[in-house]
Amino acid sequence: MTERKPPGVSFETWVETQIARAAERGAFENLDGAGHPLPRRNREENAYDWAVAKARREGVDTAAMLPPGLALRRERDELSGRVAHLASEAEVRAVAEDYNARVEAFWRQPQESRWSPVPGLADVEALVSGWRRARPPVLPSPAPEVVEVRAQRRFRRLVARFRRR
Questions:
Q1: Which of 114, 155, 157, 161 is least buried, going by the fewest C-beta atoms within 10 A?
Q2: pLDDT digits (tens, 9 = 90+) for 40-49
Q3: Distance of CA 151 to CAs 52, 141, 144, 156, 161, Å?
């Protein structure tokens, strides 16, 4: 642990003294990257880019960092993928109507600034028709025909038995 800066000594002088003492002790010998230049940072990177990169390295979902209006827009863009695995049209309509209710609640809230993104409503009918088109066509099952054939065979066997007697 470093000692406290003595009163009356400038900060720069005190730091230089600490560095000189550490160099005398050999604290800077055999360090990784010694004799090599420091890696250059991307000059185009701003605070937002740094925060997103840090969140990705930490495994945080970057969608959670979006402002509410943009988060709702993103959710609207992903609705068709979200409803693709649902089993019924009623479930698809419920998801779309839930989204629209949250957008309408967002509209009623005062916005942080006049440049805040404003999400739009999801078109429920277009979402349902897209879900229908993505579904495989339902083929009629051949089970009733098989049952009729089996029933006919049983009937014929019974008739044949009675004729033999």
A1: 114
A2: 776 777 888 8
A3: 68, 17, 11, 9, 15
Over the stretch 105-114, which tens digit does the pLDDT of each residue have? 999 998 887 7
Q: Which residue is associated with the tokens 């990705």? A: 56
- Measure the CA–CA gap between 128 and 27, rounded to whole angstroms: 68
DSSP 94: H
H or E element that contains 151:
helix 143-164
Distance CA 33, CA 39 (A): 10
For 96, the token pair is: 């779309």
Q: b/e per residue, 76-112, with b = 16+ CB within 10 A?
A: beebeeebeeeeeeeebbebbeebbeebeebeeeeee
Strand ranges, E, within the chain: none
